[in-house]
Structures are given as C-alpha cells and as structure tokens.
Amino acid sequence: MSHNKHSVTLDISRCKGCTNCIKRCPTEAIRVRDGHAIIKEDHCIDCGECIRLCPYQAKKATYDRLEDFSGYKFKIALPAPAMYGQFEELDDVDEILTALLACGFDAVFEVSRAAELITEYTRRYMKKENLPKPIISSACPAIVRLISLRFPYLVDHLLPIMPPIEYAARVARAEVLREHPELTDEDICVLFISPCPAKVSYVRNPIGVKKSAVTGTLAISDIYFKVRSKRKEIKFPQQLSQTGIIGLNWAGSGGEATSLLTDKYLAADGIENCIKVLDEIEHGTLHDLEFVELNACIGGCVGGALNVENPFIAKARLRSLRKYLPISRNRVKDSETVPEEVLLTETVGRNTTMRLSDDRMTAIAKMAEIEQIYKELPHLDCGSCGAPNCHALAEDIVKGEATRQDCLIQLREHYGQDNP
Amino acid sequence: MDKVNFHFDIDGDNFTSAGEASVRIKKMLREMGFTPEIIRRVSVAMYEGEINMVIHANGGDADVNVYCDRIEIILSDRGPGIPNIELAMQEGYSTAPDNIRSLGFGAGMGLPNMKRYTDDMTIESEVGKGTTITMTVNV
Question: CATH number for the A1-62 domain, one of 3.60.9.10, 3.40.50.1950, 3.30.70.20, 3.40.50.720?
C-alpha cells in the first residue's frame, strides 16, 4: 500500500524531461528539473491530466490492490457506476456485481445507490433560502481541490453534502454490521473501485470529512480483467443491483445536475472547461444558475484515467444499460430535511499555497519583481526552461527555485553576443 | 518597492478576449493575499471597464497599481468620449449596439457598477478625444 497522499506519481526512469505535462497541468504543479519532471505536491490536485498526456507513460496513478486487504474478515466492494460502461455487451449490472463477489468480495454496494440518495438530499438542500448560487457540486474531488487552490473564494458555493463514494461507504458499513452482528467495524474493509486517481487521493487524504469510511481504492483498470473472466463463468447472476437511471447517469457529465430536476443548471467537463466556468462564476455572470456540475475528466467519471474504455463508448453502453430501469430505486421517505449524517463535517478551506507571502508588503514587492523579470523574458512560453510559461519562470526565479540562466532563449542570445 | 504596476493593452478588435485582463488581475491579487471582497470589487470594476472600452472605444490602455492600502485602476481610451457623464452614470442608460446586447451586455449597468464597487471614481472625458476613468479601491 502506498502511503503517499497523492495518487499521481512520476516514474523517473521513464521520464524523458519533455514539456508535454508541464504545459497542460491546470495548477502549474509540474516543473522539469535536471532532465525530468517533478510534481509539486502541494499544488497537485490529482486530476490525472498528466497521466493522459505523457507520451512515455512516466506519470502513473498509484492505487491499492485487493491482495493488500487479506487481513480483513469482511470485504465490501464499492463499484463506481463508470465501471459498468467498461464491459461489452452488458445488459445487466448484476453480471458485474456477481463477478465482483467471485473475485473475493463478501458484499457489493453500488456507489450509484448512494448517488440516488445524495440526489434526493441535494434537491432538498437546494430549496433552502439564501444559498450562495450557483451551488457547485462537490462530487469530483479534483474539482473541489481546484476550487480550494485556484478559486478559494468560491469554496462557499460548494455543496456541503458528502460525495456518493463517502456516503456509500458509510451506508454499506452500517448495512453489513446490521446483517452480521458478529462483526465489528474494524473487521470490515470497504474498497472503492475507482475510475480516477483523484478519488484514490480522496480516500488517502479526504477533503470535507476528517476520515473516509473507505478503507482503500482499487483501480477499475486493475480489476477489469479479473472481473471480465469471472463474468464469463457466471451462468445465473444474483439479483444484487438496486440502482435506477439516476444512479447510472452519475457516471457521465450532466448526470448529477439533470437529476435535480431544474433546468437552471450547467454541466461542464474537462478541466480546462471547468476552469472557464469557474472564472465566469467568480465574475458573477452566471447568477441565474441554480446548480453547476463540474467534472475534471472529459465525459465525466467515464473519462477518468483509471478506466479501460473510451469515455464516449462507455457512455453509450451506459445508455443502453439504463434502458427499462426505474428512474430511481433509492428514495427517502421522511420529511424534507437534509440529515446531519450526509453533511460534510469539515469545511473546505481556502488553500493559500499560491500566495507569495502572508505579509502584503512582501507580497507586493515580490510581485513587482516577478513582473519586472517577466517583462525581460521572451514571452514565447516554450517551456524549455522547465516551467510551463515565462510568467511561471519569473515566479520561480523570485521564489528562488530557478535562475535566469534557465531561459534557453536568453542564454542563446547572450552566447550569440559574446561569440559573433 | 511599495507598489506593483500591471499594464494591459485592451484589444478593441477582439471582442471575445474582453475580460481577460480582469481574470489576470484576479490571479495576481490572490497571490498577493488580498481578501475575496477586495478582489471581487476590483475584478468586477475592471471587467466592466474593459468591456466598455471594447464596446465603445475600440480598446485602450488599462493600468492597475497595487499598493499596500489601495488598488488603483486607470482606464484610458481614445474613443468618442462621453457627451453627458451624468446621463451615462444613470442605471439602465446604454448606447451599446444591438449585436452586443444579444450577448447580454448593454444593460446600462457598466458605469454604475464601476462606481458601486469602488471607493472613488473619476471620469475625465472629452468628446472626440477619449475618456480616462480612475478608480480606487481602498484596502
């Protein structure tokens, strides 16, 4: 089991020191130094962009393996709805759930079940008065971290309700404890089967709750082949699935927002698109929207870097899979309240990592220095210095993490002048 | 150094890029640790000013001076000027063309918002020569 809090890591032996990843990292968290990339841990949001981009597969997602948890008496699988989109000719979710049991799990609990409940609670929450509109979904952990880091003043807009993965783990644990009074909470491990590295990191280093009820995170891509072969052996799948259309829709962009039954919503996917939307929300130009769903991956969770299938194919499969399913199979009967147990327990804080200094005088002086250096740089944003653009290099120089000689363009000009 | 200056050429030929200087300023102010309220006020005032310069004056220059205790925004253009400043300051008064209105602009709230979000605003304008607006947000 890896104890690193981040899922996204670098395999130095594979990294060629090219500049593909540094330029597309949404938080400018990567630099190339001494011929290979380094990831600034306090800037990385584990979105997985660099994993998708790296031509040499040097960026990897770390995750746990089923074998790591053999010490537990009872293992619960929490499959993400995106998982169902990975399998060809699937017309019954039960085939996958039964195959998971055959892989060595003692129980399965679909995250999509929790998603349907979270949908219900979100609808109730949205009826409250004086909410900072638009409310922004807190289901994608990469987006929550992006907001905390790059849009710290929008943290109040985040939906203060647990993401389905967290609620699923809690409900699943409680259900198993009810059915098996001989077990204690420590006997149970809850393993999320994840489409993305961001959720691996969420479990290791939760945001919004103190400690996640999920014990570990497996990758869809890692367990895929095992499930696939077990599936072939199954003649009569058990009746396990308790998910409707809404739960399955959460796998793709727009699934969460459309289920709120308001048309005043926006759903964006792909981290660059999400950043543009967040810019607009900060401007206050989207005030007539009620709800904003943002997914860091293109297509939503089906686009996560730990899937095996193309996101659009997965989405098409899910569309046929949900045919003839009830709208929702998880409803809450009681009043119109949002119970305490589904609320986030920790406020998502404003991350100040990006600040130049806590002292304003110092910060202004540093910024002035950055602007001065930036003016003198070539503005090509070529990345050959190892920073994503000239402005980032200027910042690195002032922070003492780089020098002017790192700019190869200027170095070449100097060299040309000295040796005509 | 007690201040930092940011200069922007507001490109009047490229309507779709209007608002970019405001995004940039927001990022810088955040890195300097200003409070959300201050950043919001500056970025909204800046945004409205930028949009105005692009719609009415074919662009211009924007300078933002950041001091410890205040942020100063100076927008100057060589556009047509404002014949009646008092009228222009009225909420709902707009001379924006129809094609701009279809994008949701032209509600006549630009100048009033700039005034509302800043602590001080002066407009110097000469018809046929241009307009300079200086706004200050006290920290």
Answer: 3.30.70.20
Give the C-alpha distances (Å, rounded to integers) separating A247 from A228, A251, A307, A333: 22, 8, 18, 18
Distances (CA, A) of A1 to A4, A103, A205: 9, 19, 14
Partners of residue B19 in chain A, C-beta under 8 Å: 283
pTM above 0.90, yes or no: no
Enumerate the domain spans of chain A.
1-62, 66-342, 355-420
Q: Quick check: B4 and A356 CB within 8 A?
A: no
Beta bridge partners of B120: B136
Which of A28, A154, A272, A283 is the mutation pick for testing B, counting most B CBs within 10 A? A283
CA distance B93 to B88: 6
**What residue ranges do the domains of chain B occupy?**
3-138
Taking the Cβ of residue A287 and every Cβ of chain B, the question of whether any pair is shorter than 8 Å is answered with: no
Closest approach of chain B CAs to the CA of A365, in angstroms?
5
Helices (H) and strands (E) in chain A, counts: 15, 11
How many beta-carbon contacts under 8 Å exist across A and B? Answer: 64
The predicted model gives A158-182 an average pLDDT of 98
State the CATH architecture for B3-138. Answer: 2-Layer Sandwich (3.30)
* ipTM surpasses cut 0.95: no
Q: What's A355-420's CATH class? A: mainly alpha
- Tokens 């002066």 belong to which residue? B122
Q: Does any CB of chain A come closer than 8 Å to the CB of residue B103?
A: no
pLDDT at A186 over 70: yes
Chain A: residue whose CA lies nearest to B105: A285
B5 contact A CB<8A: yes
The token pair that represents B92 in the structure block = 């709902």
8 A C-beta contact, residue B62 and residue B75: yes
Q: Which pLDDT band holds residue A153 (cuts at 50, 70, 90)?
A: confident
